[in-house]
Write a structure and sequence with these properties.
globular; 76% helix; 0% strand
């Protein structure tokens, strides 16, 4: 058993759990920290697969925390029972609409983004520019987004959020930040936008991660040490994400998001300086 690999996997699981739902880009942080700690398995396939598997751990946290809401949408799925506006059909149809733009662009551009932008320096640049964009968007759009505190989304709002989610194809931009900003522009409150982002992550991340894992070759190509470290990262990301999601929602009810934008910019400058000094 490779103890060092498992320890590194646990560390990255913490990073994933902390950053998946915060507007700071989990992919960007994972890429940078993988480089910092020299995270490698016996094959490159393991490193690629690891990222997608631990994302599923974070997504499981959303399912657990919002299980009552998910169950209610299933029990009350058909409009004939509770009416269209309160039906699970309407809820998941809005999620489906929001998935369409990202699904199309993801198929077209995801491989290109991974090939040319999935490394520490491009990610750091995107983190910095994305931080500036977050500050601008919050100052301009959040003030008018106090209405619609309930998670009720129209087709137009879902489409706007889905279009903004496309920005997350760029590593370092952050799917959470992109969808929350899209929610502001669509007229949602910050909490409603964040919660819609959580639910939207379920089909998006499960679908994307499953396709990537199958494309890479599946879990059975891994060694026993790699499987154990993968399980450790999955469990840790799940536990940390459980804590972070509740804390994030509580934070958004009272305080601005710009603190995350400032963090992104500071972190990006540190990474760029490290790159200049030859760390990457």
């Amino acid at each position: 058993m490779d103890i060092i690999l498992i320890i590194k996997s646990i560390l990255l699981g913490v990073v994933e759990g902390l950053t998946e739902f915060l507007p700071v880009s989990s992919t960007g942080h994972i890429v940078i920290f993988e480089n910092i700690i020299k995270f490698k398995g016996t094959t490159q396939s393991y490193v690629e697969m690891y990222t997608y598997v631990i994302q599923l751990g974070a997504i499981l946290a959303v399912i657990v925390l919002y299980w009552k809401k998910i169950k209610d949408t299933v029990v009350n799925f058909f409009p004939q029972k509770v009416g269209y506006e309160k039906s699970g059909f309407k809820f998941w149809f809005m999620i489906f609409i929001a998935c369409i733009p990202g699904g199309i662009l993801g198929i077209l551009l995801d491989d290109l983004a991974e090939e040319y932008l999935l490394s520490s320096i491009p990610v750091a640049i995107t983190l910095f520019l994305g931080g500036i964009w977050m500050i601008y968007a919050e100052n301009k759009f959040r003030k008018g987004s106090a209405k619609n505190k309930e998670l009720s989304v129209t087709p137009k709002q879902a489409l706007i959020i889905g279009l903004f989610q496309c920005l997350a194809i760029i590593p370092g931009m952050s799917r959470s930040a992109s969808t929350i900003i899209g929610g502001w522009i669509a007229g949602l409150s910050t909490v409603a936008a964040a919660e819609f982002s959580f639910f939207l992550a379920i089909p998006v991340m499960v679908g994307m991660s499953t396709l990537k894992i199958v494309k890479i070759g599946g879990l059975f190509i891994l060694t026993s040490s790699e499987m154990i470290s993968l399980a450790a990262g999955f469990i840790v990301s799940f536990i940390v994400a459980l804590i972070v999601i509740n804390g994030f929602i509580s934070y958004l009810k009272k305080k601005p998001m710009k603190v995350f934008a400032v963090y992104r910019m500071i972190f990006a400058v540190i990474v760029l300086l490290a790159g200049y000094l030859g760390a990457f």
